[in-house]
Amino acid sequence: MKYKDRIYVIKANGTRVPFDFGKVKRTCIRAGASRDLANSIVNKISTQIYQDIRTSDIYKMVLKALASEESGNIIRHRYRLKESIMSMGPAGSLFEEYIARILENSGYRVNAMRAELDGRCVKHEVDISAYSKEKNKRYMIECKYHNLPGIFTGIKESLYTHARFLDLASHFDAEMLVTNTKVSADVIAYASCIGQEVLSWRYPREKSLENLIEDNGLYPLTILPLSKKEILALYENDIHIAKDLLSRDISQLAKRTGISAGRLRNLQDLVRKIIT
């Protein structure tokens, strides 16, 4: 199929770039769509694209197109992964809890959250202190959360993380910067130079944050169609990853959260479909 030539889109950060239909197709496939379904989605939105359309509007078009397909509903939830993480809230504490759960599911032992430690010069509050048995290293993990699209995590955050790591050298063997956005080229270059590990959107390639989530079914609770009240009630019961619902006793969880057992069972069914 031939698409319109030289269509430009406006990204969330205001930049104007050529539109790539292939990217929409690849993202649909990453979310679990077959190639035929991905092609169908691309064909549907291709008739609606216009010059200088905003990427946020294209995103809505894709979600609507997926919803219209018989097999698209579950894929639609997975396609919303980035949005789901950004909807955790204005503060970063819930993101830190979510990252801690991801690390635990990836072989790390989380020793402390937001612990105050004495550095050589000053006291620091460390977002996550963790230990990797595989690498035999104590990790200082700095989380940088953004709840708006179009933001890059830049060199300032990387420098800040490394400075804190140097002052806390007696407590840790390694440092990690974790963010839910893309990182700048300077971050990649600097982190590679000093040995700082980075976990972010789209980086490292094949081992990025979304790879880790998708490959292991570690989708956030916010990927589910929940009210703010329901999300808060589940967070208060230490549920940050959607599939954690599968291991909980429904009767007890219903009593603790005020969410009906029937509603919780329906959510469990949806989680099973999302992670399958």
What can you see in these coordinates?
- The chain is α/β, with parallel strands linked by helices and 276 residues long.
- The protein has three domains: 8-79; 93-215, Trna Endonuclease, Chain: A, domain 1, CATH 3.40.1350.10; 219-275, DNA polymerase, domain 1 (Orthogonal Bundle), CATH 1.10.150.
- Helices cover 45% and strands 17% of the residues.
- A five-stranded mixed beta sheet has the order 4-5-6-7-8, with helices on both faces. A three-stranded mixed beta sheet has the order 2-1-3.
- Helix 8 links the parallel strand 7 (174-179) and strand 8 (197-199).
- The chain is globular, with a radius of gyration of 20 Å.
- The model has no long low-confidence stretch (mean pLDDT 92).
Radius of gyration: 20 Å
Euclidean distance between termini CA atoms:
32 Å
Which spans of ≥5 residues are poorly predicted at pLDDT below 50? none
> Number of helix segments?
12
Major beta sheet summary? 5 strands, mixed
Question: Count the strands?
Answer: 8
Strand order of the largest sheet: 4-5-6-7-8
CATH topology of the largest domain: Trna Endonuclease, Chain: A, domain 1
Q: TL;DR of this structure?
A:
This protein has 276 residues and is an alpha/beta fold. The chain folds into three domains: 8-79; 93-215, Trna Endonuclease, Chain: A, domain 1, CATH 3.40.1350; 219-275, DNA polymerase, domain 1.
Name some characteristics of this structure.
single chain; 276 residues; alpha/beta; Trna Endonuclease, Chain: A, domain 1; DNA polymerase, domain 1; five-stranded mixed sheet; three-stranded mixed sheet; 8 strands
